[in-house]
Amino acid sequence: MHVVVLMKQTFDTEERIRLVDGKIAEDGVKWIINPYDEYAVEEAIQLKENQGATVTVVSVGNENTTQALRTALAMGADEAVLIEAPDLSDERAIAKAIVAYLKDKSFDVLLAGNFSVDNGAGQVAIRVAHELGLPHIAAVTKLTIEGNQATGVREIDGDVQTVTATLPALFTAQQGLNEPRYPSLPNIMKAKKKPLTTLTLSDLGLSNDDVAAKVERVEVTLPPKRQAGQKITGTPDEQAEQLAEILVKALR
């Protein structure tokens, strides 16, 4: 079994976002594997441990993205691939680059996070499945694979749904699927010797026109500062009346 994990490197969720000249400042930022992609990496490693799978992690980004790829290797992945394309900005273009890499590869399972914590679009993995003509099950909290059949459990509106698919197929990981492991020091050292291949868009037969952005980011702004809270005093009846007045004004 060959498992391919699509992953992204994102800001640490504890980082404070700063804007400089209308762009998000990246200097001095701590980078991590997108948390939802980390569930996908862990699930792939469990398939390796339980079913003898081989695990490849793939990411699109700049040279700095090797940090996240090395972390995935230290967790237990076998090899990593960086598609070096730092200027790709929209999900369509990123998915197109991944499809160009995967189209002539043999694999059984594609895993990815349900969405990334920076853009939150949740598009790339689903676009890849569509372009490759693969069935997909989104936001799984449990995944079982037996032979060429997979069963995914996903939460929907307070209930759960069980979906089956024939491999090869793509699955996106939701929180609760597993508990990602921390790489041990010996595995971190071993990861430095594992294969990490860097490819360019031209290596994949793609031109700039092929990956031209279809979406333009016009402006990036920080959310408005939270206003100070308002204290309501008086008897319970008086407080209820004041609260009602505040709510009516807010809804106007």
Residue runs with pLDDT of under 50 for 5 or more positions: none
- Percent of sequence in beta strands: 25-35%
For the largest beta-sheet, the strand count, sense and barrel status come to:
9 strands, mixed
- Overall 3D shape: globular
What is the percent of helical residues? 25-40%
Strand order of the largest sheet: 11-10-9-12-8-1-6-7-13
Rounded mean pLDDT is: 92
Number of helices: 6
Number of strands: 13
Q: What is the first-to-last residue Cα distance?
A: 59 Å
Query: Structural class, judged by helices and strands?
Result: alpha/beta
What string, H for helix and E for strand, traces the elements in order?
A: EEEEEHEHEHEHEEEEHEH
* Rounded radius of gyration (Å): 22 Å
Topology:
Elements: E1 2-6, E2 9-11, E3 19-20, E4 23-24, E5 31-33, H1 35-51, E6 54-61, H2 66-75, E7 79-84, H3 91-102, E8 109-113, H4 124-132, E9 136-146, E10 149-156, E11 159-166, E12 169-173, H5 185-191, E13 196-199, H6 236-251
Parallel strand pairs: 1-6, 1-8, 6-7, 7-13, 8-12, 9-12
Antiparallel strand pairs: 2-5, 3-4, 9-10, 10-11
Helix pairs in contact: 2-5, 3-4
